[in-house]
Write a structure and sequence with these properties.
heterodimer, A: mainly alpha, B: alpha+beta, Jelly Rolls, four-stranded antiparallel beta sheet, 6 helices, 27% strand, globular
């Protein structure tokens, strides 16, 4: 979108940023609706190629939509039924493991901070390393009482609306084109072709973003799993997968992913600082590769937004809606940019405006042609 | 035998076409399309109505769609010259703007509604998507498009020679 954004004027830019902020503010109020809708969009773009293949094989649009979204819904329900007994059976053990990793991680951080303290004379007599460790352990002890039950309750509350996503995806697959036709019907004739193109551009941008995010997560997961396995961190596949998914939360996600891997490395290999440095190095190099190679290649330059604007919008998104704002702000900004640019092209086009005014006059004349006929004239 | 039964069934089903589909079948480009296929195309079309004198598109404009005339007439002309620059007048069942489907070149002429008219519009990307997903529709439409272009080319050659 860099090529596009150069054509956008300052007034439109203000409109784009303002609209994005307003939408983030509104969306955080109806997050219960926005999250399943976004998941449905993700699912829709994920299933669209399969839908195309089914249509190609001669299947009807309705049946293909039922088949695909139904299969996905069954898959989710099956996975939940499979995971639930596993969670119940292993909850105690997992909690113990989690505490052990917290302990190991906090010890590693204490060592790191202590080493820093030893290298700086003004920090040597402070007790930062001890207080950092105590804080981390305190958080870990309170976690199960205070945060875990809250997290489980939130997950249970969100479950119905998340299960709603395949149903929305079904309607998008089945009636997507009709919905677009319905929206286009409201557009005046003069702007019609341009609005058709706008719909296509929006669809393309959203598809590139959502599918790109999935592809990027897959690439990150493979890269991290192989990297963690090579440097000798245990459970590389699971850690790589979790860190790749966490990468969807801009800036904070990769840091949490890295911390998880550091915690595991520090617990299973206590005192091996080189492994911790290698893990941090691996996550750092992935960040660089993501920003300069994978994102431009996978998501494409079309959705790329200037880094300064990205950073600014991330801060604004976080300030307005917290983690949800961080995750929503970039896709919303991308979509609003496409709309803003197209609307600017449409409204700046004086010829289209003149054609629309002329068409309005014709319609008015047609509507009022028999109004001033004198009934006594004949 | 199965083939003849299929043909008979299609002919029978064709009798129960909705008025909308029947109108669409009147368009020359869709004359060979089966009812089920026509239904798939119908889902992609946008219906527009234009009043006499209204401009449908301008010469040099970016081309995005093909138009099918369901009722009324349109005049294809040089930009802003509907009388002395008229190139052709098209009526119901004919289509225009088909070059948009074949290449990304700008519109070659202006099109105005010569009478109040109703048009169906097919967006280029939808047309290309249709060609990918429905091979039978693709071959029939391509053949009809080629026939139409050939006919216009022959007419142009004849008028040039004469």
């Amino acid at each position: 979108m860099q090529q596009r954004s150069s054509r956008i004027g300052p007034v439109t830019w203000c409109g784009i940023i303002g609209s994005t902020c307003l939408l983030i503010f509104l969306f955080q109020k109806i997050l219960w609706l926005v999250v399943p809708f976004l998941l449905a969009l993700l699912l829709y773009y994920l299933l669209a190629p399969f839908n195309k293949k089914l249509l190609k094989s001669g299947m009807g649009r309705d049946f293909a939509a039922v088949l695909l979204s139904g299969a996905f819904l069954l898959l989710v329900i099956g996975a939940l039924l499979l995971v639930y007994p596993m969670v119940i059976a292993n909850a105690g053990e997992w909690q113990y493991t989690l505490m052990r990793y917290f302990e190991g991680g906090s010890r590693a951080i204490e060592t790191l901070v202590y080493e820093i303290q030893q290298n700086f004379s003004f920090l040597r007599h402070s007790d930062i390393s001890v207080s950092v460790r105590e804080n981390m352990l305190g958080f870990a002890e309170r976690f199960s009482d205070k945060h875990l039950s809250e997290a489980i309750l939130t997950a249970v509350a969100w479950l119905p609306s998340i299960l709603f996503a395949p149903i929305i995806a079904y309607f998008l697959l089945k009636d997507g084109t009709q919905l677009r036709t319905f929206i286009c019907e409201t557009v005046p004739n003069a702007y019609f072709e341009k609005s058709l193109y706008l719909m296509y551009a929006l669809d393309r941008s959203a598809r590139m973003y959502f599918l790109g995010m999935l592809k990027l997560a897959a690439i990150d997961a493979v890269f991290l799993s192989v990297g963690l396995w090579l440097i000798g961190v245990p459970s590389p596949l699971l850690l790589g997968f979790i860190a790749a998914i966490l990468g969807w939360i801009p800036y904070i996600g990769p840091i949490i992913g890295c911390l998880l891997a550091v915690m595991v490395a520090a617990t299973d290999f206590p005192g091996d600082m080189s492994l911790i440095y290698a893990t941090i190095g691996l996550f750092g190099s992935l960040r660089i590769l993501d920003d300069f190679v994978f994102v431009p290649y996978v998501i494409g330059k079309n959705m790329s937004i200037h880094p300064l604007l990205t950073l600014l919008m991330l801060f604004i998104g976080e300030a307005i809606a917290g983690v949800a704002g961080l995750m929503l702000v970039i896709p919303i900004l991308g979509i609003i940019m496409v709309i803003g640019e197209t609307l600017e092209i449409i409204f700046r086009d004086t010829r289209l405006k003149a054609r629309h005014t002329y068409a309005q006059k014709l319609h008015q004349r047609a509507a009022s042609c028999d109004l001033n006929i004198d009934p006594h004239q004949n | 035998m199965l083939l003849s039964f299929t043909r008979k069934f299609k002919a029978f089903a064709g009798k129960f076409e909705t008025p909308q589909l029947a109108t669409l079948r009147g368009v020359s480009l869709f004359s060979q399309i089966a009812t089920g296929e026509l239904r798939a195309i119908r889902g992609l079309l946008h219906r527009r109505t234009y009043l006499k004198g209204e401009i449908i598109f301008d010469e040099g404009e970016e081309a995005q769609a093909i138009y099918f005339i369901l009722s009324g007439k349109v005049v294809i002309c040089r930009q802003g010259r509907p009388v002395d620059g008229a190139i052709a007048e098209l009526g119901a069942s004919q289509c225009f703007g088909e070059m948009a489907l074949l290449d990304n070149s700008p519109r070659m002429a202006q099109v105005r509604a010569a009478e109040d008219c109703t048009l169906d519009v097919l967006f280029r990307e939808d047309f290309l998507g249709l060609l990918q997903t429905h091979s039978q529709i693709a071959s029939k439409l391509s053949l009809e498009l080629a026939r139409m272009m050939g006919k216009r080319l022959r007419q142009n050659i004849n008028s040039y020679v004469l």
